[in-house]
User: What shape does this take?
Amino acid sequence: MRRGPFVAALILFTSVLSVAVASATPPTGEIQFKDLARAQAVEGASVPINPGTALVSGGYSVAPGGESGWRQLPGTMVLAVTKGKMMLHSGEGCAAKEYALGQAAVVPAGTYMVHNSGNEPLEFFGFFFDQSPGAPKPLAEGPAAPAPANCTGVMATAAPSGVSLTTPEVGTMVPGVYGQHATLDIQAGKDVYASYLDISPGWSSGWLSHRPAVNIVSGGELSYVEAKDGKCDESEQYHAGQAFYHPAHRHMAFNKGKEHVLLTTMYFDLPHETPLPVIGNTITAVDFTQAPPADCPRLR
Assistant: This one.
């Protein structure tokens, strides 16, 4: 799925990186990127990476007074508030918790309802783990779940209203190099950062390291190379319709195909800070100053 104009300045991005990594391997080729959300995780979680399940992402808007209705979520969800305030109701004790602009809810599987009790639209960006392949999109599609037995009054009769979903992406989680029996640890108090990348054919990231991340490929095929067992390993590739997990590590990404690679990513455990304008989120999540490893000296 292609999106509209990107808010990031590609020329500035390339210029800054070229200066920052003059002694390493700066990116080459064309890449466009868009910041989707950055927020501080209020809760922490240990999320198992389960191959064969669906990873779903999307931007949500809830009108004033609107709500999702009760929804049964089979896995952890991360909701980063980008506008307004979000009231998240849980079927566990029928409790409610408010999340402000710049905060992210990180909650386990369970029954939940998102409600906008404010006077302005609520917007948030979500990532949803362990979804069933082909299931309705979380919080927005399909029938609502029955109200939890311990929720009475208005909470018992809540019905979906005023919720819209844009730019949904879905990928089937594959084992990959790090995904089999892996666990993503999300730290409370640290930031999460979601971005969308449009990577042109011929692009290379140069050698880099990055924070832990989950990714959904919605177009093209993305390839990686890393030093492994004393040589360059190029076996890691992901194509449209797949999702994958990467822990923090060093490698090089590139698009050797003829199609654009379209990638939605959420990075975890960034420091909680105010980023630099335009590219601050990207260079906080990704370190482009890496030199080629001794056992894999290739530059591109």
